[in-house]
Each structure stands twice: as structure tokens, then as C-alpha cells.
TrEMBL record:
Chain ranges of the HTH merR-type domain: 1-74
Full protein name: DNA-binding transcriptional MerR regulator
Pfam families for the chain: MerR_1
Taxonomy, superkingdom: Bacteria
Keyword DNA-binding: yes
Species: Allocatelliglobosispora scoriae
Record GO terms (molecular function): DNA binding; DNA-binding transcription factor activity
DNA-binding in keyword set: yes
UniProt cross-references to Gene3D superfamilies, sorted A to Z: 1.10.1660.10
SMART domains in alphabetical order: HTH_MERR (SM00422)
Keywords from the UniProt entry: DNA-binding
Amino acid sequence: MSIGEVLAELRAEFPDTTISKLRFLESEGLVEPRRTAAGYRKYTRTDVLRLRYVLTAQRDHYLPLRVIREQLAAGAAEEGDDEPPAAVVSSIRPALVALGPHDDPPVIPAEKTARLSAVELCARAGITEALLRDLQTHGLIRVTPGEWFDAEALAIAEVAGQFAAYGVQPRHLRAWRAAADREVGVVAQLVAPILRQQDPSAQARADEAVRELTALSQRLHSALVRIGLRESR
């Protein structure tokens, strides 16, 4: 398959994939297409399976490329297997955050359905419409211009619902929102030099940098919270 044919096949499931992204994954050693005498890339079915495995691991489990590369080297992507198994994902979490098996933060998978109505969102997240409105009022969830909710809104709604079981209301979650906004500013400054580079793969490398920085942020946050709680006893 040519790179254009591979892109056409993958975009049905991964619409954000670009030729630059495929070239970037090749430069990172995730896939090694053969070259014709004229220098054109030719992908095998195994190459496409590897790419689908990589893209699924990034989208659904937020795994950085270095971790995915290790799993591929260990033969994680076999014929017909385009989803990292649960054992792989659970084994990766300590590598991401360097925490013990009982206190590492969960990797929240992104819901593949990207367009949800308010009723659908509440049903999937297990929350009431009143809680959803409260989350919107406090700026934790935003509706898109098309009046629907995306995968990130679903993830926030699920977490907010679990917090509510402990009596934590959306107004209490504004501290997390403020901290996240500050973190966004820091990460944006760090990846800005990458995006300014005149390189077709700059966006893909910036995305990977954001994924790595997010994993580091989770590790730091978890460690600081544990230390603070230990010292407050």
C-alpha cells in the first residue's frame, strides 16, 4: 500500500491522522515501510496493523511513544490485534507515573463517540442533568458550537460524578480547573519552539511532547498530594 492508501484506510477510524503524522511515526521507529527503487514508501498489512495499534494506544490510553515502542518491541501488536490488552495498559501505568500499584492515577480512556447530546452524556457518565448544568456553570464542561459534548466532556462528567459521591460539588472543582489552566500555559510555552520549526512533522512532535509532559504532570501531582496528606496527619 502507498502512504496515501494507508492514510485513507486509517482516517475512517482516526480522522486526525495526516501524512506528516505517518512520516513522524516512521522517523520514530514505530513502523518501517519498504521503499521502491524510486524511493516511494510501500506499507504491508503488518505495517498498517502496527500503525493502528500505535494510534489506538495514543487515542484511547494516552500512552507516550517511548512506551508504545517498548510494547511493539516485545511483540504486543500481533496479527488482528490493534488494541493494547488490559495487561499491557495496567503494566504501563507505573512506567508513566512511577507510583505503586495501588496509588497510581487511572488512565482514563477517551470515548470513541465524539458527539454526545446532554441526555446521552448524562446517561453514559451516570450523572444528573442538574449536575451537568452545574459543571457548565462553573466552566468545567463546555458545549461545542454545534450544541454537543465531546469525549473530554464525558471524561470530566464521569470524574465529577465520582467526586459527587464524596460530597464534592462542581464549585469545589474550580481549583482543579485553575491549576489545569496554569499547566496549559506552561506546556504551551514548552511546545511553542517545536511548532515554530519549519518541519512537516512539527505538529506530530508537539503532540508527543504534550503527551509526555502530561504524564510527568500526573506523576508530580500525585507525589505532591501524597506528601501533603502524609504531612497533614
